Amino acid sequence: MLNINQFKIDILYLKRALQLAYLGKFTSMPNPCVGCVIVKNNKIIGEGTHIIFGGPHAEINALREAKNNIKNSTIYITLEPCTYFGNTPPCVKSIIYSGIKRVVISMKDPNPKISGKSFKILKNAGIKVSYIPIKFKTENNIGFSKRMLKNIPYIKLKFGISLDGRTALLSGKSKWITSIKSREDVQKLRMISSAIISTSNTILFDNPSLNVRFKHIDKMYKKLYPFKNFKQPILIIIDSKNRIKPKHKIIVKNREIFLIRLKKDNKIWPNNIHQIIFKKINLKNLMLYLGKIKLNNILIESGSKLAGSLFKLKLIDELILYISSKILGNKSLGMFNIPNLKKIVNKNEFFFKNIKKIGKDLKIILKYKKNI
User: Fold this and answer.
1) What is the spatial distance between Cα 198 and Cα 306, in angstroms, rounded to a whole number?
2) What single-letter DSSP state applies at residue 172?
3) Whole-model pTM above 0.70?
4) Long-range Cβ contacts of 231-234 (<8 Å, 24+ apart)
5) pLDDT tens digits for range 187-226
6) Catalytic site residues?
């Protein structure tokens, strides 16, 4: 059992490891964000982050920085070390061979292949193991965890709305309800998303790019992340009637695009465009497919019809609203295309997670109560 002073020291170093894990939030997908700190004689001798998928894990980067000064040290890791060969060798073996005497872990791996196994392996090797769960304050791994536990990604729905809850005029025009600061903030949402889902109707009407525009990213992020590590989120367009053509603006060569369809067409498409065929457009099956191909976080940017369908199926985990001070009136378009309720008891309820001011607007993040 840990004494109080040792516990406080452990928390201090775990918090530093969590700060390091944060550095992988834009680039480590589909892997989780992981940070690692190695301490010897009350001094940090090595730090590591899992920066990019396929690259060294956080533990390996920290071991390399510590070099040959590792024996009898303590290693602090935000996530249980891996135990099997994937794109890289198992980190648990590297820890054992290094001479580390104690391992402190703040989160068990939700991956069934690993969950809890490294604890046993490390203890059998004579290494002391402490499990001190502290909350990932940025929830960096929420999408990874959901995919591992439920086989589907974490799903966020984003809207820019007026003060009276409208997304566009009756004509469909919506440029611009919210401020430029809100639109710049959306770029960060896109950066942490594995994919963006929209519909052919939204694409054809609004002619959006739905990409990360790096010129809007804060200078802080540009210093931390070389652009070579960035990937545009996959764009997924639900296109059951094959309305999207190679000529459309959205068809670009620098990102993967999935066209979700009922049948293939015979047009010539670039190699980065994939026609994904379903017998029926079933949103639950689509999400299971996206989980199967290792997508952790999905951002929905669409109109009220898709939003309403996701809402009725209880697939939305998080609702993100950018609310302007404009009022558009009753005949403007709303957020959800869903049936009117006859009784308040039949309501669907979100709870407020965060509220803050963005430029002239409010940003509100809500979670769906039934998905908690």
Assistant:
1) 8
2) S
3) yes
4) 231/27, 231/255, 232/256, 233/190, 233/191, 233/193, 233/194, 233/195, 233/196, 233/299, 234/194, 234/195, 234/196, 234/258, 234/295
5) 889 989 999 999 999 999 888 889 888 766 666 566 666 5
6) 59
